[in-house]
Design a protein that fits this description.
mainly alpha
Length: about 260
């Protein structure tokens, strides 16, 4: 992996991590286009820069984390299904589902779902005043729906946003809960991945890791701010159209 390639992958991660378009899928597709050879370092790099994106959420939502203890409990409950399913299915998912065809198909299917339910997402009225007031039961069911995001291309953000809307939240609250739930989910997933991946870096690789972390942090920071404004004004259908277009292009690319 070259220095320029590391920056491109980090930008892709930062932009897509919290959007309902699948950051993992986009990184797989970007790596395929740039012909980056998959090895232990590349896997570690893709995991490590996700932590940079997560730090952006921690900084942006520090007030919510500090002012409400109950949000920790609710996020913990929402995280339980993902932790259990992820631990059981980790080897199968990594061994059989991490490929470009699965990503492309998942992007298309997920895009169709977003377009079909956009009207519900747009007109949905919240059952709570603030996102911290979501019930423990609804938190758990959002966590169950998040399990589908383990399939590359589905998108953790898309799954949790849809789960939030169908469990009493409006579109903005569902998006914010998705951001907050990303913190324990991605820290745990990234930590587990790092433990399973051999780590031994050259000085060049250390520079790539540091650069990718910083680029992903600032890119995610900007992407989250823009994303919230888009959601409030336009809903989610355009993300659905984008998913369908990208998935179709890559299916044609790999076919021909």
């Amino acid at each position: 992996m070259s220095f320029i390639q590391s920056i491109i992958i980090a930008i892709v991660e930062g932009i897509t991590e919290f959007l309902p378009v699948s950051s993992t899928g986009h990184m797989i597709l970007a790596s395929t286009l740039m012909k980056i050879q998959e090895n232990d370092f590349v896997k570690t790099f893709e995991i490590f820069i996700q932590l940079g994106a997560i730090m952006a959420i921690v900084m942006l939502y520090a007030k919510k984390f500090l002012q409400s203890f109950s949000i920790y409990v609710k996020l913990g409950i929402a995280f339980i299904p993902t932790a259990v399913v992820g631990y059981i299915a980790y080897d199968f998912i990594k061994g059989y589902l991490f490929n470009s065809i699965v990503v492309a198909v998942s992007l298309i299917v997920g895009g169709i779902v977003l377009v079909l339910i956009d009207q519900k997402l747009t007109t949905k009225k919240s059952k709570v005043e603030v996102v911290e007031d979501i019930s423990y039961k609804n938190s758990f069911f959002i966590g169950l729906i998040q399990c589908f995001s383990m399939i590359p291309g589905v998108s953790r953000a898309a799954a949790t946003i849809i789960g939030g809307v169908f469990n009493g939240l409006d579109k903005k609250q569902a998006t914010e809960f998705s951001f907050l739930l990303a913190v324990p989910t991605m820290i745990a997933a990234s930590g587990y991945d790092l433990l399973k991946t051999p780590i031994s870096f050259t000085s060049h690789e250390v520079v790539l890791l540091a650069t990718g972390f910083v680029v992903a942090f600032f890119t995610a920071w900007l992407a989250v701010k823009v994303f919230l404004k888009i959601v409030e004004n336009y809903g989610f259908k355009y993300f659905g159209y984008y998913r369908i277009l990208v998935g179709a292009i890559f299916l044609l690319f790999f076919r021909f």
